[in-house]
Structures are given as structure tokens and as C-alpha cells.
């Protein structure tokens, strides 16, 4: 392992330790309600970036994957009373399969055509669930939380820690993809797909792998949501907000590095939580839009690009 | 005569009702320098797109190095040894020149078994030969036209091709630059690589090629030594209009 790799894993271990410590020490449950959402968005944005950022395939289907994750968990719970980790694991497998399947159908389309196709996926998935009575259909479904596992004293704190672990898995995967041969191939696809193919890059295969990893993480992020609210209905599970947020967070953070979506999700996610509490839950959508416009105009390469530019300026200024 | 490295047999390509290529047959020998000429829209680039796999031909067959590659996707043909440059350069803009070439060696050469340092060394040797070594760490988005053309050839070379197709690598270049690129191509051919050159600059094609084929409206007008082709009435008509 390289020096950087060691630091990454030390950071990841500290992060999980911090999450556990918070769960054991802090009494106020609201912290975990808000924290859960921010962590969830880190996973979603990181997952989005693997296909959208590295390969340049802008995916509007995040909410489809997320919603299917939610409903995979609900199905497993209702049918087999499956425990949380099984729900997440199966959701990841379903997400990967869904990513492969959808990828095969849509990834031959390039640019804007791919994006349009992914919008349709959410609508199809939502319609399917609306018509499936077993998981509640259009009216939704209510669930009871199983007893909490020690050492946690509340279910929401446990979910918070589970999400923290999921964040580490997602970021580690994104980091691995970025530094691997797969990552270099995806970057070539993003820069010029025709040239990539002529250099021997199996473009379709790489895109499929990226779509499967991305889909698995999105579905896995959706699974714990069922228990978070103890209620799910198709309209909120497949809410287009997830698609827009994941995309906006990645773009605002910067798509060229795994840290970008993480920063973007923390910045946007916490701002949204703050606004929801202080002003109203409606205004956070407006803020999301405004921030996206601001960044596209002022810092098209996101926070990462901004920092790099400042860094270069400082480097030049110093003797 | 040795067996052909590339055998194009009755290849046709249609775009809707428009026939871009009609029954094109040609054999390219190993180590040959082959020139492909013809007026704009005559099908030169379509033909090499069919050979390299960017397009799939509608009829006929393409056999390369003893294998039928007619239906293979482009990336597999690259791995078998067909590399190309593009008429309008297509660099990976967010990468340095070095990284551009590393993509080609890592993906274009199957199980090359090289360590990262060895791959870099091989790629640097190619850049040295082509005269781009000093630009290795420069972002490819910052290269000049002639440097971009050279990088395209270098990147094609990184995939260790048997056949190199150069699609108008000299278009838009000035006199001395043309000579530079021509020298590069001759040097590569000297190392045993078969080269197909598409070019509008007649002096360059005629100086370079051992054999020239002229296309017009998707058909072969004539084929022969540069001198024969230049003297052919039909070629003159194709270029000047009858």
C-alpha cells in the first residue's frame, strides 16, 4: 500500500470511530436524523460520479436506483423479515444487476440521448411499484422497526453508523476505480469515446462495469431509508430530487476526483438541512438550483477546480 | 509475393440511400507503403473507418493477418494490430501526452506484462522517436497542430501496431512540418510497420508511397505506382472534373 493509501484508510477508520462515538455519546436524536441524510447523499453523489464524472455519462436515473433500493428492503422485510444488513446486501446485488441491464439498453446512446433515456427509467420503475400491491402500491407502506441491536440505544443511531460504513465502502470503491486501469479507460471515454475505442479501450464494457458499481451503491443507499422513515411510498422513494441532488453535489464538488462528490454532498446536504430547520423545507430546492448555477458559472470544475486554481496561484506567487 | 497483411474484399458501405463505398477490393502487403487518394467525399475515410472498425461494412469481408475482422469491434481490431490516427486530431484532452500514450499501451496491447515504469519507458521511447519527448508531461490540450498530429501517430504506435493508418496527418500543416511528419512515417515504416496514408498533399503521397490507389464516388478509379496513377486520365478527371 502506498503512503496515500495508508492515510486514506486511517482517515476512514477515524471517520467510522467518530460516527460510533457520536452515536454512543450524543443524546439528541435529531443530529442523527440530519446526519443520516447527509451521509446518504455522500453515497449517492459518490455513486453518481463513478459513471457521470469519470466516464462523463450524465445519469438522471439516480432516483430509480434509490427507489428500487428502498423497495428491495421493503420486499425483503415483508416477505422474509430479513435483517438490515441482508436488505442492504441484496439491494446492492439488485442495483448492480439493474445497472448492467439498463446499461446494456442505454449505454450505446451517447451524450444527451443517454441522459434522456435515464429519465425514463425512474418513471418506469415508479409505475411498476405503484402497481405492485404487495409492497403497498400507490398508498405506500408502513413498517415497524425491529428491536435495536446493542450497543446502540436507538434505531436511528444504528442506521447512522451503518450509513457511515456505507460511505467508507462507496468512497473506497470510487477511489479504487479512479486510480485503476478502469478509471483511466473511463477517463479516455469521457475525453473522446471514438479515440478511446481506437486505442483498444473496450468502451461499452467499461461503461457497463461503471454503471453496475454505481447502481449497486445507489440501491444500497436506498435500502436503509425504508427503516429511517418507517414508511415508504413511490412518490417520495422515486423523487426526482435524488437524481438532481446527486448530480448537483458531484458537479459542485468537482467530478475529477473522489473527494469532489464528498465535499459537494457535505456542503449542499448540510445547507439543506440547516435551511429545512430554519426557514422551510421548500426553500432548499431553490438553494440547490441557485448554488448549481453559481458554480457552473463561477467554478465549472467545482470546489476541486477552485482549490487547484488557488493552489496554482499561491504556488506562482511564492518565490 | 508474400501473403497479404490486409485483404479487403468487395467491401461496401451505404448510408441510407447513399452508397459511400462500392465493392472495394485491395490487398496490402506486409511492410508496404500504400497511398490512398481521391477527391473530397470519395470514400477514403469511410474505407479506413471500415478497416479500423469505427464503422461496420455492409458487405464484403476484411481479413487482417489471417483473421476475419469484418465484424469485430474497433477495440479488438486495435489489439490485433490495426492502429490509426484521425483526420481531426482526437486527443484525450484532460490527460498529458504521456498519459494519452499509456491508455493505448495499457488497453491496446493485450497482457503486455509490463510494470508501470516499463510501460512509461516504452512510451517515452516512442515519443523520443517522434520528437515529442519534451512534451511528455504537457497536457494534450495545449499542443500545437503539428504536435497534435505527431501525438496521434505516437499514440497509434503505442498500441504496437502491424498496420498504421494515417488519415490526413499532414492536412493544414506548413512545408517544413509536412516533411517532419513524413520523416516520422518513413522511420516507422523502416521498422517494418505497414502504413496506409490518406493524403491530399500530392507531393507527400507520391514521395511516400510505393503503391497508390485513387477512389472516386466510392469506387476504385485506378491503382498502381505513383507515376502510373498521376498519369492516369481518369484520376485527373476525378480531381479536375471531366
> Which value, in Å, is the CA radius of gyration of chain B?
18 Å
For CATH, the homologous superfamily of chain B is named as P-loop containing nucleotide triphosphate hydrolases
Question: Helicity range of the residues of chain A?
Answer: over 70%
Structural class of chain A: mainly alpha
Which residues of chain B form runs of ≥5 with pLDDT under 50? none
Structural class given helices, strands, pairing of chain B? alpha/beta
Distance between the terminal alpha carbons of chain B, to the nearest Å? Answer: 37 Å
Order of helices and strands of chain A: HHHHHEHHHHHEHHHHH
Could you walk me through the main structural features you see in this protein, from its secondary elements to its overall organization?
The complex is a heterodimer of chains A (319) and B (242). Chain A is mostly helical and 319 residues long. Chain A has one domain. The model of chain B has no long low-confidence stretch (mean pLDDT 90). Chain B has a 6-stranded mixed beta sheet, sandwiched between helices. In chain B, strands 2-1-4-5 form a 4-stranded antiparallel beta sheet, covered by helices on one side. At the A-B interface, helix 7 and helix 8 of A face helix 2, helix 3 and helix 5 of B.
How is this structure best summarized?
The complex is a heterodimer of chains A (319) and B (242). With 319 residues, chain A is mostly helical.
Topology:
The complex is a heterodimer of chains A (319) and B (242).
Chain A (H helix, E strand, L loop, with lengths): L2 H23 L4 H23 L9 H19 L3 H23 L5 H19 L10 E2 L12 H25 L1 H11 L1 H6 L4 H20 L2 H5 L1 E2 L1 H4 L2 H14 L5 H20 L4 H16 L3 H16 L2
Antiparallel strand pairs in A: 1-2
Chain B lengths: L5 E10 L2 E11 L4 E5 L6 H9 L6 E6 L2 E2 L5 H7 L1 E3 L12 H12 L7 H15 L14 H14 L4 E5 L7 H16 L3 E5 L3 H7 L2 E6 L2 E6 L1 H6 L1 H8 L2
Parallel strand pairs in B: 3-8, 3-9, 6-7, 7-8
Antiparallel strand pairs in B: 1-2, 1-4, 4-5, 9-10
